[in-house]
Design brief:
By secondary structure, the protein is of the alpha/beta class. It has 12 helices and 6 strands. It has a 6-stranded mixed sheet with strand order 3-2-1-4-5-6, sandwiched between helices. α2 (31-53) packs across α5 (89-106) and α7 (184-194) crosses α9 (239-252). The longest helix is centred in the first third of the chain and has 23 residues, at 31-53. The two termini are 14 Å apart.
Length: 303
């Protein structure tokens, strides 16, 4: 399977064409521009990786993430950051939603969007359960398959704890893996300790609101970091630190996805896989004609 981190990959592709300042290149960010960019991008990934990894699975974000319910500060600064960009984010998000539905209705790829889930949840759950013999009874898969994740999200590297999972970063144009000297356990533990400022998650010594309220985080000294890396949660010195460590574990360790969320994703995966198989490729050519994609009509077999 080729698991596409859809929202993230689309936004990265747009930024690669026009820049986050909206000035680089000549492409105007409108619905037609985004459609041509994304459909050609998916074609390219399938043509390059289908023989080794199989079919595309489009993994999408939904609103009101369960992590935000658990931790209200989660990604709280994203809206402000978008407001400082020259890109028309309303057009981008509207185009993503439209394309998500068009791909679902016209292409033979499962499009998976589950209430309260991020694409990370979808990707992590499929990676986990595609290794399980339990799924052999459902008809979803016959046996564990090699998986390629298409995403620039560094958090997903932790899923390479499964031996048949790899990740390609479109931004860096290369396969990515653990940093030198790291394995999955060390990578996850370091991420828990450091937090993730881009997602509004403070380090394991700092209070929930420090990033949102621009309060300086408590510094992680070399000695404290070493203590955490050696002892995990037992490296905490206070009850508050233990609470912060547990908070970060819930937010960044993809093995912590609630079981009910996994069940929703697995149900949707099975439904969408059956739907995509029944749909097949019979609508692809007419879709390309409708949207005046003449060059892509010439490489129809790539889809």
């Amino acid at each position: 399977m080729i698991l596409v981190d859809f929202n993230q990959v689309v936004i990265a592709a747009i930024a690669g064409q026009v820049g986050y300042d909206g000035k680089r290149g000549t492409g105007e960010v409108n619905e037609d521009f985004v459609r041509h960019l994304v459909i050609n991008m998916l074609r390219s990934y399938r043509r390059q990786y289908h023989a080794e990894y199989g079919e595309l699975v489009i993994c999408c974000d939904d609103g009101n993430y369960w992590r935000k319910v658990f931790f209200p500060q989660y990604k709280a600064n994203r809206k402000k950051e978008r407001g400082e960009s020259a890109l028309d984010w309303q057009v981008i998000f509207d185009s993503i939603k439209l394309l998500r539905d068009e791909i679902n209705d016209n292409f033979p790829y499962p499009v998976i969007r589950v209430s309260r889930c991020e694409a990370d949840d979808v990707i992590a759950t499929i990676c986990k359960w595609s290794q399980s013999n339990e799924l052999k009874q459902t008809g979803v898969i016959e046996e564990p398959q090699p998986i390629l994740i298409i995403s620039t999200d560094g958090d997903l590297i932790q899923l390479q704890k499964y031996s048949n999972v790899q990740q390609f970063s479109p931004r860096d144009k290369k396969m990515v893996t653990f940093p030198t000297g790291m394995n999955a356990d060390k990578f996850i533990l370091e991420h828990i300790i450091e937090g993730d400022t881009s997602d509004g998650v403070p380090n394991a010594l700092s209070a929930d609101n420090c990033l949102v309220d621009k309060i300086r985080q408590k510094p992680l000294t070399q000695a404290r970091r070493a203590g955490f890396m050696e002892n995990g949660i037992d490296g905490c010195l206070t009850d508050d630190e233990r609470t912060y460590f547990q908070r970060n574990t819930k937010l960044v360790d993809l093995s912590q996805i609630p079981a009910y969320i996994e069940d929703l994703i697995l149900d949707m995966w099975q439904q969408k896989l059956s739907y995509a198989r029944a749909l097949g490729r019979r609508k692809v050519f007419n879709y390309l004609i409708k949207h005046r994609m003449a060059e892509l009509q010439k490489v129809l077999n790539d889809f």
